[in-house]
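Sequence and structure are no longer studied apart. As an example, we show below a sequence and the tokens encoding its fold:
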Amino acid sequence: MLKKNLILSEAERKEMENWIQLTFGADQNLPIDVLLLILYKIHLLEEKIGRIEVQTKTHWVD
């Protein structure tokens, strides 16, 4: 079951590779492993939480 969750589509893989290069330096050629996948998923969750936070603040202010 865990392995199914770790499989990425081609678009997700490309987006993740771009994020890794921007985050860790474009000159590094890092292999995609489980730790980097976890870091990427945490990054996506942080973005979603940030959007929810902004939406909540703007909703209660208006």
